Amino acid sequence: MNVIVDLCVVPLGVGVSVSAYVAECVRVLRDAGLATHTHAYGTNIEGDWDAIEEAENEALVTSLAMICPFAAPEKQALLEAEALPARAEVLTSLLEMSAGLPDTSEGTRH
Fold this sequence. Notes:
With 110 residues, the protein is an alpha+beta fold. The protein has helices at residues 19-31, 49-54, 57-67, 72-80, 84-99; strands spanning 2-7, 35-39, 42-48.
């Protein structure tokens, strides 16, 4: 099954140019075998659903962490996470806190 998704990531607090962040996201997507088309309001991603499922999770989580406007302590917490599941949990918690969402974890939030 072929799918098309429109992705818009807006890194805040990184200065005027976001081109390096967008380029890194596009690189990760293309490395996963997905076709991309960047436009003024985001990036269209097209590919086979199986290719999307096979995309390397670590690269996707790392790219997302890079483009998020976290302060130094939050980025340090992401760097210190020993494995992908821990990094994904920290990233999820940081995003939930930024969005003001209720805590969905059972552990302590940082």
